[in-house]
Amino acid sequence: MHTPPIVDVIIPAYNEEKSIPRVIGDIPALVRNIVVANNNSTDCTGKVAEAAGAKVVFEPQKGYGKACLTAMDWIKKQEIQPDIVVFLDGDYSDYPEDLLDLIQPISEGESDMVIGSRALGEREDGSMTLPQVFGNWLATTMMKYMQGARFSDLGPFRAIVWSKLLDLNMVDENFGWTIEMQIKAHKAGLRYTEVPVNYRKRIGVSKVSGTMKGVIGAGYKIIYTIFKYW
After folding, report:
1. Given its phi and psi angles, is residue 93 left (phi above 0), alpha (psi -120 to 50 degrees) or beta?
2. Which of 33, 51, 149, 181 holds its CA 20 to 30 A away from the CA of 188?
3. Which residues are paired to 9 by β-bridges?
């Protein structure tokens, strides 16, 4: 009989008190731990996440990657380590129930990492800004020609074998986190694939695409990371 994998979910969250309970509530029951990294929120993100059933860790230093690393540190301390870790945003733009599609190629032994591709799925009108769409296209095109890595998206919704993730030695503390993982996975020879995921307008204002400073900052860091690992 096939034993179901142990799956933990990491959600980096900054001021997501309105959306985080919905995200947690829609995560499939097979998940063992939902680890919310409260990234120095000024609202009640931590409290409402805990009330919804998540394990909450606090990370005072702002940064998407930093929050993810803090959540990973919590998982490392658990007596029984997970087989798979899934990364998911806390703004309810992703559909948490798609997690089952993400982990399937890993559960079946076909992949080490699965990216949820918004480019291959259905996107609600207005869910991604023009700079986001262009940035994803530019980054994935650069990765293809510079590293030979074939991706259609840098989507934050992703699943990876926990032991393989640890081997990647992730270090980026902000916007370069997702692309660092993809480039390192490709260079390490991990088996990776993409599955279509649907995407909707987030609850609240984006910290990246919602401001010009965020768009420029994220774009610069993504391109910098591509050249860093070239």
Report:
1. alpha
2. 33
3. 34, 86
d(CA 16, CA 40): 11
What lies within 8 Å, CB to CB, of 210 at 6+ separation is none
Angle of helix 212-228 relative to helix 177-187, nearest 10 degrees, comes to 20
Name, in order, each residue with C-beta under 8 angstroms of 17's C-beta and a sequence gap of 6 or more.
Answer: 41, 43, 44, 45, 47, 48
Say whether pLDDT at 218 is over 90: no
pTM over 0.90: yes
Task: Write down the domain spans for the chain.
Answer: 7-127+153-202
Which residue has tokens 């530019």? 138
Give tens-digit pLDDT for 48-71.
Answer: 999 999 999 999 999 999 999 999
**Mean pLDDT, range 22-44, rounded to an integer:** 97
| The pLDDT value given to residue 1 | 41
Give me the residues paired with residue 11 across strands: 36
